[in-house]
Design brief:
The structure is a single chain. The chain is an alpha/beta fold. The protein folds into two domains: 203 residues, UDP-n-acetylglucosamine1-carboxyvinyl-transferase, Chain; 203 residues, UDP-n-acetylglucosamine1-carboxyvinyl-transferase, Chain (Alpha-beta prism). The protein has a four-stranded mixed sheet. Strands 2-14-16-15 form a four-stranded mixed sheet. The chain is elongated and about 60 Å long. Bound molecules: uridine-diphosphate-N-acetylglucosamine.
């Protein structure tokens, strides 16, 4: 199990290279199933979620090959995946559904996350596929979709990122025009559309609430460099705000981080766009109100790191989580470090004060990174246990990147109690 030991940090100073976005790479790997020709992802991040989705793609008949700074996926022949375990461990694996269905007229995928539809739903993916002509049946923890799809209109009740991506991918290869209304506007959706355009798809409106896709007979291969990871960049900006640092986040795109930067600036941080990225400096000194929303609102994936900043900043901060109903699990761990956080349903009220080191456990990906940050501004030693490897699902070498800018943090491989 991975365990991290974190000591109180001086101000973080220096440069951090921001990696390629996990949430952009995953749908692009799934999109490679739409063509017989190889798709090459440039500068893929070394993350366990990426490796897991590659396993799913291989179980679909795709071949995956890594070269330095390149990941090739070639899917000459495809079938429905048999790696049910991987499907259940990672929600993003549902993204193979659209490509499989569009290319073969059949897809059988395990329900992700081990949860039934309704509790952690993929109902919008399924409703959308049904609107395009798929017959959908659910049996024994799997969903089977069949049929030759045709273009049509789909309205998403909520602008789900995954459902938008799945439907957009499926629509690239089907006869006629598809219109996705109330589509997700996240930069990763636009990035997937750009990759699909490079593969010969006809798409307009991606990045807005209405996406139009004109189906084509076949897509071809492409080399594609996905966008930098805005969540990694945002997490590092929070680390700067906590320690009173001065960091150049190389490659970070300020335009993808507006909501976070507005909020950190309200708290006292200074942020400047530079030709190579984004510079953040200063310390958070004032409390904040944060409401998570679909893009361009404040990202739910940065709620946990931002809560740590609020914990260390004098005054009362308030959080409203509107995207996921159970996303305050880090609050209990932060309380073990002396944080004063009250949670009532979707609201968390944080009274800023001093944190003290403790042994805490990573409960999910973003919560794990948040606990590392908390250790940087706590008194004494913080030990962050990550028995399920949540942190490396989405952050590449986070401890090395933080250490290089002065954070006293170490990863203790294979440590137990
Ligand atoms: C993606 C991101 C994740 C981020 C989330 C929200 C990837 C791989 N993951 O996840 O990091 O936290 O967007 O920005 O890109 N919903 C339904 N029915 C559905 C689908 C979703 O009710 O069929 C609900 C979800 O339960 C959730 C909300 O819609 O409450 C948003 O989910 P969605 O945008 O689909 O998130 P993901 O694509 O899974």
């Amino acid at each position: 199990m991975a365990t991290f030991e974190v000591n109180p940090s001086p101000p973080l100073v220096g440069e951090i290279e921001i990696g390629t976005a996990k949430n952009a790479v995953l749908p692009i790997i799934a999109a490679a199933l739409l063509t017989e020709e190889p798709v090459c992802v440039l500068r893929p991040p070394q993350l366990s979620d990426v490796r897991l989705l590659c396993k799913v793609v291989e179980s679909c008949g795709g071949r995956v090959h890594s070269a330095p700074d390149k990941l090739y996926i070639e899917a000459r022949q495809i079938l429905s995946p048999t790696v049910e375990d991987a499907m259940r461990r990672m929600r993003a694996s549902v993204l193979v559904m659209g490509p499989l269905l569009a290319r073969t007229g059949h897809a059988r995928v395990a329900l992700p996350g081990g949860c039934a539809i309704g509790q952690r739903p993929i109902d919008l993916h399924l409703k959308g596929m049904a609107a395009l002509g798929a017959q959908v049946s659910v049996q024994q923890g799997s969903v089977e979709l069949k049929g030759r799809l045709r273009g049509g209109a789909v309205y998403l009740d909520t602008p789900s990122v995954g459902a938008t991506e799945n439907l957009m991918m499926a629509a690239t290869l089907i006869r006629g025009e598809t219109r996705i209304e109330n589509a997700a506007k996240e930069p990763e959706v636009l990035d997937l559309a750009n990759c699909l355009l490079g593969m010969g798809a006809r798409i307009s409106g991606a990045g807005s609430g209405t996406i139009l896709i004109e189906g084509v007979d076949a897509l071809h291969g492409a080399d594609y460099q996905p966008i930098p990871d805005r969540v990694e960049a945002g997490t590092m900006a929070c680390a700067a705000a906590l320690t009173g640092g001065n960091l150049l986040l190389r490659g970070a795109r300020a335009e993808h981080l507006r909501a976070l930067l507005f909020k950190l600036q309200e708290m006292g941080l200074r942020a400047t766009e530079t030709p190579g990225g984004l510079r953040v400096r200063g310390r958070a000194r004032r409390p904040v109100e944060v409401r998570t929303m679909a893009y361009p609102g404040f990202p739910t994936d940065l709620q946990a790191p931002m809560m740590v900043v609020a914990c260390a900043t004098p005054g009362t901060s308030v959080f409203l989580e509107t995207i996921f109903e159970n996303r305050y699990m880090h609050a209990a761990e932060l309380r073990r470090m002396g944080a004063n956080i009250r949670v009532e349903n979707r609201v968390a009220v944080v009274e800023g004060g001093a944190l003290s080191g403790a042994r805490v456990q990573s409960t999910d990906l973003r919560a794990g990174a948040a606990l590392l940050l908390a250790g940087l501004c706590a008194q004494g030693v913080t030990t962050v246990e990550d028995p399920q490897g949540h942190i490396e699902r989405g952050y590449e070498a986070i401890e090395e990147k933080l250490r290089a800018v002065g954070a006293p943090i170490a990863r203790i491989e294979g440590a137990s109690e």
